[in-house]
Amino acid sequence: MLYNNGFRIAATGLSWPSLQPGGLNTYFKSICEQLAEQNTLDALICSDEKPQVPDSIRIHSIGSKQQSIWKRRELMQKYAATLFDKQPIDVLYSHFAPYGVGPALEAKKRGIPVVTTFHGPWTEEMKIEGQGFKHLLKTTLAKSIEMKAYGLADKFVVLSETFRDILHEHYKVPLSKIHIIPGAANVERFHPAEDRGTVRERLNLPQNATIVLTVRRLVNRMGLLQLLEAWRRVTERHPDHLLLIGGKGPLMEELASKVAEYNLHNHVRLLGYVSDEELPLYHQASNMFVVPTQALEGFGLITVEAMASGLPVMATPVGGNKEILSGFRPELLFRGTDSEAIAEGLLRVLDNREALPDARECRDHVLSKYTWGHVAEQVEDVFRQALDRKAAAKC
Predict the structure, then answer these.
(1) Mean pLDDT of the chain
(2) What is the pTM for the complete model shown?
(3) Who contacts 308 (Cβ-Cβ below 8 Å, separation ≥6)?
């Protein structure tokens, strides 16, 4: 069959991380780049501008973030129809339900299999971050979009057992359609520093401090308020330790207020948005990474990126982080999600640093299980199964 010599893939995503930071966009970029090494790939995103990409990827910037989501959805569908009629496509690979619905409808008309990566319950994430009648209406419409998109998919990829269960139980997707393929880290980009002191000097960080890093979208479910409350207890015993919080979002003002209220000016730095260029440097400058997520953590790309950089990671037992660390060093999981559990866990390891895994152990675990090469091979196998099913149906 033709696809044994490489698939012709149309991939739909939200955006590109250089244009709109976030785990979904980082995943989309990374898997597209990896798949494009052996396949033909067109990536459709919604953006006012076109990001710089390798020559192997044909990127299509469609619509504008200034338009309504309904208009963007319409433009995606029209563009996909034109693309599918202009060139042969073996599989549609969808990553964001609102932009995936239209292309999936066009794919179905042409007998093109649809494989969807489920990055999480979009509607549930929205519910956590808002309230009121208008927000309820917005989430109800969002749920209808999700149900439509997932009803059109032939196969699903999820990044963790947690999201497999959510997809099955909340969206009624049969388990036979769901394939668990964990995410990965770019191990060329994320690696331990040759000289941590030089990196700290470049970033204007103290040379002798123990530095704990987290980089998150600044919203409630990421657990940053709980982390700050826990860090107040940590600094009582370790006044020379420094917490770095990177990211942007609606919680920034409240975080800054809490830093002042807890008198943590000398113990916490709110970095704001950390660029793609600086992110690996902050990993290299740090001694440990912390992930205090309260809910809906699908996999934890940041966890394996930190480990690839040689950092031990402590995380709440939520979603994919529980699965990553249980198979590595389960003692790095906090016993719960509240500030007390986070403080207890941080103090336990910071009081006994020699018990932490070293940089080689952390990186080797990622190299053995969480590279984009591993992910692409498994995703291609799902494509193959979807196409084989299509061929069998024709017989």
Answers:
(1) 92
(2) 0.83
(3) 185, 186, 187, 190, 191, 362, 363, 366, 367, 370
